[in-house]
């Protein structure tokens, strides 16, 4: 059965870390003398108190974490982080419904970026910073963050990493996972700082630069203004945002190995990176043509708007510089494809990941060859590495489950009166951790506040399932998981 003592110890440690993050937001609140400092004090006390209770329950726990424990602790830690993440919103009174507060917190930690807040500019500075910080921490993973800073707090960290990491192929920089985590977080931190300075250079204030850089590099999409990047009317800021979102959609391990090793060729010949880049270029060119031909944009404006939205959708960031609801409907199909595929594995982006797109193409190619040569044994290689048969079976299981969840949840929303386009794209957006949706009732520049409560709970569940790549969460609902042996 589950090692409940060790699980309690880990959850307690994680809640202490969350209280530390809330303390950072308290400092921001005090610096800007905003009205939310008392709610943050109460949030810190409640979260730290709950963490202490969990730690006491986990006293004298051993450090033997099994695979079953790892899946359970990762899923529960994301739910707990979101539950306690609601405290600043609810205690301050800016969100009075637990459903809405949980939706906002889950959207933050999973870097989905869908919001129920129509005018974020009306929030005090501490709450705005908390929204952005939830996305920045959730970008590479809550438990992965803990492994990087306090490896001793998470027993069986390799199993936990496997339960939380994105993509079908896991890679490490160093034999010690905690060392790999530190280097990957260093890349993430450097990207964030470079993004802050770039935004500031383009004319943003320091507060906006910090917030937008955290949500850009986390590919999350929360904004300090209801108009997102479009509020600033700055082409330079749009290009900066598109660049850093694109970089954050690249596999961080590959990015580190290419830049630190001064071997850019390693990046350029990588199959997943090429697939990801080709999609961005082709989709950008198509949408730019449509905007020039049908919406009469000038060439630079068309290119800027199209590359920004394509990168925002494919990296599942959700920032916007234009209203895609006013674009030709054929561009919606392209943006929906971006939602589906997402960026690279091992990045902060969502979707099914580009590596699975590469694997699917190779599986299809092998099937055509098998028809012509029935007795041939056809290996499937990606960047010179043979992909075992078990990974191919997992790929088909993942794609089938992804499709079933999409159809079931979209059908449920349509049955309860949500229009077809919105229901399908809301489901894709939640499951892919994208943020914006396409449709007339809830457009790509609008909040999700008008969704009924049941739909928000479905979306919150889909965000969690999508961020932890389906199996980590859904395995908890199988009878085999709870059997003693």
TrEMBL record:
This is TrkH family potassium uptake protein. The chain crosses the membrane at residues 12-32, 38-58, 70-95, 136-162, 183-207, 239-261, 273-293, 330-352, 395-418, 454-482. InterPro entries: Cat_transpt (IPR003445), TrkH (IPR004772). Belongs to the TrkH potassium transport family. GO terms for molecular function: metal ion binding; potassium:chloride symporter activity. It is found in: Cell inner membrane. The keyword Metal-binding applies. It comes from the Bacteria. It is a multi-pass membrane protein.
């Amino acid at each position: 059965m589950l090692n409940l003592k060790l699980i309690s110890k880990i959850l307690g440690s994680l809640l202490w870390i969350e209280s530390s993050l809330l303390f950072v937001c308290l400092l921001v609140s005090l610096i800007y003398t905003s009205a939310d400092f008392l709610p943050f004090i109460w949030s810190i006390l409640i979260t730290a108190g709950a963490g202490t209770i969990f730690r006491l329950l986990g006293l004298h726990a051993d450090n033997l974490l099994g695979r079953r424990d790892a899946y359970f602790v990762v899923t529960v830690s994301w739910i707990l982080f979101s539950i306690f993440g609601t405290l600043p919103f609810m205690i301050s009174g800016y969100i009075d419904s637990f459903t809405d507060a949980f939706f906002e917190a889950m959207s933050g930690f999973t870097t989905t970026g869908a919001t129920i807040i129509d005018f974020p500019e009306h929030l005090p500075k501490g709450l705005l910073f908390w929204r952005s910080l939830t996305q920045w921490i959730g970008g590479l993973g809550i438990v992965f963050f803990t492994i990087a800073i306090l490896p001793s707090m998470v027993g069986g960290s390799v199993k936990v990493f496997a339960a939380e990491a994105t993509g079908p192929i896991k890679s490490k920089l160093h034999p010690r996972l905690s060392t790999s985590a530190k280097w990957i977080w260093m890349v993430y931190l450097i990207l964030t700082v470079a993004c802050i300075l770039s935004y500031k250079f383009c004319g943003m204030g320091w507060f906006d630069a910090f917030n937008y850089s955290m949500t850009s590099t986390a590919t999350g999409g929360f904004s300090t203004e209801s108009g997102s990047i479009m509020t600033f009317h700055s082409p330079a800021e749009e290009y900066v945002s598109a660049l850093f979102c694109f970089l954050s959609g690249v596999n961080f391990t590959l990015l580190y190995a290419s830049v630190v090793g001064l071997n850019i060729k390693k990046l350029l010949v990588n199959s997943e990176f090429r697939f990801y880049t080709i999609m961005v270029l082709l989709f950008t060119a198509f949408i730019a043509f449509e905007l020039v031909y049908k919406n009469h944009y000038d060439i630079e404006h068309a290119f800027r708007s199209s590359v920004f939205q394509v990168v925002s959708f494919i990296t599942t960031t959700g920032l916007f510089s234009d209203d895609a609801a006013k674009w030709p409907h054929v561009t919606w199909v392209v943006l929906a494809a971006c939602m589906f595929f997402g960026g690279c594995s091992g990045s902060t982006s969502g979707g099914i990941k580009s590596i699975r797109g590469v694997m699917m193409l190779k599986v299809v190619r092998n099937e055509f060859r098998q028809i012509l040569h029935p007795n041939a044994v056809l290996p499937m290689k990606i960047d010179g590495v043979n992909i075992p048969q078990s990974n191919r079976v997992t790929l088909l299981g993942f794609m089938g489950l992804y499709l079933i969840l999409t159809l079931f949840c979209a059908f449920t929303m349509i049955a309860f009166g949500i229009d077809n386009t919105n229901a399908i794209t809301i489901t894709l957006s939640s499951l892919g951790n994208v943020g914006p949706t396409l449709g007339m009732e809830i457009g790509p520049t609008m909040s999700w506040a008008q969704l009924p409560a049941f739909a928000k709970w479905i979306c919150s569940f889909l965000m969690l399932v999508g961020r932890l790549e389906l199996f980590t969460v859904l395995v908890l609902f199988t009878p085999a998981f709870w059997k003693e042996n």
